[in-house]
Design goal:
Elements: H1 13-46, H2 50-99, H3 102-107, H4 110-152, H5 154-199, H6 202-210, H7 214-267, H8 274-315, E1 337-347, E2 350-360, E3 365-369, H9 376-381, E4 391-396, E5 399-400, H10 406-412, E6 413-416, H11 427-432, H12 440-449, H13 453-458, H14 476-490, E7 494-498, H15 506-522, E8 524-528, H16 532-536, E9 540-545, E10 548-553, H17 555-561, H18 564-579
Helix pairs in contact: 1-2, 1-4, 1-8, 2-4, 4-5, 4-8, 5-7, 5-8, 7-8, 12-14, 14-15
The protein binds adenosine-5'-triphosphate (ATP).
Residues 106, 346, 352, 370, 372-378, 501 line the site of adenosine-5'-triphosphate.
Length: 598
């Protein structure tokens, strides 16, 4: 079941046919002892035939054993098919979700994605293991039972069937109550999971602590928990009342058959035998369970359909960013980038980038500066195609990114993002994520370049130090330097560095600076810069405001222009300059400007 969705012919049809056959045989076999009981009574006991009695008893035992053995085989096959179908579904869904764009993940609730991947798919598996086989085996049992009953005695068979509605009515009512309770408790459990998800995550519990919301969160959790137990109690009690009703009504049926059979035998001299009546009572007893289950299946069915719908909703979402069918894989790339009249929006009613054009030559470095929310990160996200430009073109190494092989493109673009993400593992695991075949020497080399090697070697376990959940055992600066080392291992043709806006202490900042400066000298790079020293390392500065490149040029030219850059310089960058004695003469109000060599 490769590709998108579990559609198409199932590859397990042979196993399915075998299951159907097994269900048919075992359901029929299970009814046989009831029929044989009639003959045991009539031929063996009443007919006083010892041989027949033993033969029939042995046959009955053998049939029961056979039915159960086939039942075991059937359950094995059944769970085999169900597990394989869910295995395929999980894998293909994972693959499908991997193809989903960044937009999908920023829009959808993470908990929702996980629920669909886990409990919804489990639900589908339950449908296959229980619901479908229940429908099959119960229908077969019912049909066989009715046929055999009519062959025994049509009059009593009709009477038996007329009794069925007696227990159909209470079953349906109880089923409906249980269904609505189940749904309520499902919602309640979603709510509980939501609370746990929010408050037990690293950032969530930090927020709870810092805002002193412990008691209120506890109360919220406790209340949901209480609602849950009440629902569970009601649900289990609905089941109990249901059993009382069912047990009473189901004992009425056999009594009626005995009575009717007795009347036929004694009053009307019918040729019906004691054995016949016993068989009919036995078969009627065997009909209760299937009728009951078939009635409840409707409930399961509705619930399963809801799960199927949720899963298929994801399958039906097309992958927004796809490899072009004739995607180009060049031998190499120089990492140059050209934006040509690029327009972009996340939502059509709010344009983010307007007519953005710039050229980054191979080996050069541009710095993008601008107020928060002006669209800087959005611009760089378009290069590795996390999103596609709405109009205009972006070329990488001279080729339109939409025509380039996605793997090739992403392999050659390295991004150090503002928010560093590290997996819970060792520093080594996180570095090897970029290139699993990197040698120890290469790892050390990358760490040295990223200015993190001293820290790593000061740790008792060195590269094997655990970074903690999302790397939270490390400081922001350490995490960022590890992520620089990780990108260096990848050795991309274009390096994009989204400088953290969050405050790092000046030592960390300086260490990052020392790491990044030689890197951008030696390769094509784009910097989203918030600090003067980073900006000064660039060949060209692009000033973005409201999604438009409003100014461009060198620091010396821009700082004098009296526009957005001058303002940014005075409000943001000059603080860093003031703190740095080497750069303190850059302040605009000193009217001393750095030369073009910057
Ligand atoms: P900062 O310097 O604060 O990181 P930025 O210049 O990098 O800001 P962007 O992250 O590119 O700004 O965001 C530009 C605009 O796009 C913002 O107004 C933001 O609200 C909006 N935006 C960003 N990401 C999304 C998204 N996934 N969906 C919808 N709108 C978004």
């Amino acid at each position: 079941m490769a590709g998108h969705g579990p559609g198409g012919p199932t590859p397990y049809w042979k196993q399915m046919l075998l299951v159907i056959l097994a269900i048919f045989v075992s359901s029929t076999f299970k009814l046989m002892p009831s029929v044989l009981t009639g003959r045991i009574i009539d031929e063996g006991l009443i007919g006083r035939d010892m041989n027949a009695l033993i033969r029939l008893i042995l046959l009955s035992l053998a049939v029961t054993l056979g039915a159960n053995l086939i039942g075991v085989f059937e359950s094995y096959l059944n769970s085999w098919i169900a597990q394989h179908i869910t295995y395929d579904m999980r894998n293909s869904m994972y693959r499908h979700l991997q193809e989903m764009s960044q937009r999908f993940f920023t829009t959808n609730n993470q908990g929702d994605i996980i629920t669909r991947m886990t409990s919804d798919i489990d639900g589908v598996q339950r449908v296959i293991t229980n619901t479908l086989t229940d429908i099959l085996s119960n229908s077969i049992t019912l049909i066989v039972a009715v046929v055999v009953m009519y062959r025994q005695n049509w009059l009593l068979a009709t009477l038996g069937i007329l009794i069925v509605p007696l227990f159909v009515i209470p079953t349906r009512t109880a089923g409906r109550t249980r269904w609505s309770l189940t749904r309520e408790s499902q919602e309640c459990s979603d709510e509980i999971n939501g609370i746990l998800n929010e408050t037990m995550s690293v950032s969530g519990q930090l927020l709870v602590k810092l805002f002193g919301r412990e008691d209120r969160e506890y109360e919220r959790y406790r209340a949901a928990n209480e609602k849950m137990i009440n629902l569970n109690i009601r649900e289990s009690m609905a089941g109990k009342w249901f059993m009382v009703i069912l047990n009473t009504t189901s004992s009425v049926g056999p009594m009626l058959l005995y009575l009717a059979g007795g009347i036929l035998m004694m009053r009307y001299n019918s040729d019906i035998t004691v054995g016949d009546i016993t068989v009919l009572v036995g078969l009627l007893g065997q009909m209760y369970r299937p009728v009951n289950q078939l009635l409840n299946i409707q409930v399961d069915w509705i619930r399963s359909m809801a799960m199927f719908t949720r899963i298929f909703e994801y399958y039906d979402m097309p992958a927004e960013i796809q490899n072009a069918p004739d995607a180009v894989i060049p031998d190499s790339t120089d990492g140059s980038v050209v934006f040509d009249h690029v327009e972009f929006y996340y939502e059509p009613d709010r344009q983010i980038l307007k007519d953005v054009s710039f050229r980054l030559k191979s080996g050069d470095c541009v710095a993008i500066v601008g107020p928060s929310g002006s669209g800087k990160s959005t611009m760089i996200n378009l290069i590795p195609r996390l999103y596609d430009a709405v109009s205009g073109t972006i070329t990488f190494g001279g080729i339109d990114v939409k025509k380039l092989d996605l793997h090739f493109l992403r392999d050659h673009v390295g991004i150090v993002s503002q928010e560093t993400y590290l997996f819970n593992g060792t520093i080594r695991d996180n570095l090897l994520y970029a290139r699993s075949d990197a040698t120890e020497q290469e790892l050390i080399e990358a760490c040295k370049k990223a200015n993190i090697y001293d820290f790593i070697s000061s740790q008792e376990k060195g590269l094997d130090t655990m970074v903690g959940n999302r790397g939270l055992k490390l400081s922001g600066g350490e995490k960022q330097r590890i992520s620089i080392a990780r990108v260096l291992l990848k050795d991309p043709a274009l390096l994009i560095f989204d400088e953290a806006t969050s405050a790092l202490d000046s030592i960390s900042e300086q260490k990052i600076q020392e790491a990044i400066e030689p890197l951008i000298q030696s390769r094509t790079s784009i910097l989203i810069a918030h600090r003067l020293s980073t900006i000064l390392a660039a060949d060209e500065i692009l000033v973005v405001s409201g999604g438009v490149i409003v100014e461009r040029g060198s620091h010396a030219k821009l700082v004098k222009a009296g526009g957005v850059y001058t303002e940014l310089y005075n409000t943001q960058f000059s603080k860093a300059a003031a703190a740095d004695p080497d750069h303190s003469d850059y302040r605009v109000d000193n009217h001393i400007y750095p030369g073009d060599e910057y």
